[in-house]
């Protein structure tokens, strides 16, 4: 899985290019924006940011597994960590 920095994610902060972070995982929600039950405005407020707190307020783990995980594109962190083991 590809690693990203929070700074890289922050560059994807518009409805037509929307990434978020939840629990250290990076999600590309660009194609999901128009389908989100809470509307486009909800997602654009957290675009490019760590949305963990807001996500957990309104969703449970089952939603993440069923809907969220297919949109995961990476993780926050150092992709060289395995090379140091």
TrEMBL record:
Gene3D superfamilies the UniProt entry points to: Cytochrome b5-like heme/steroid binding domain (3.10.120.10)
Task: Provide any one GO MF term from the record.
Answer: heme binding
**Keyword set for this entry?**
Heme, Iron, Metal-binding
Give GO cellular component annotations, separated by semicolons: membrane
Q: Which residues form the Cytochrome b5 heme-binding domain?
A: 1-77
Cross-referenced InterPro entries: Cyt_B5-like_heme/steroid-bd (IPR001199), Cyt_B5-like_heme/steroid_sf (IPR036400), Cyt_B5_heme-BS (IPR018506), Cytochrome_b5 (IPR050668)
Report the SMART domains cross-referenced here.
Cyt-b5
Q: Which family does it belong to?
A: Belongs to the cytochrome b5 family.
Output this protein's name.
Cytochrome b5 heme-binding domain-containing protein
Query: What organism is listed for this UniProt entry?
Result: Circinella minor
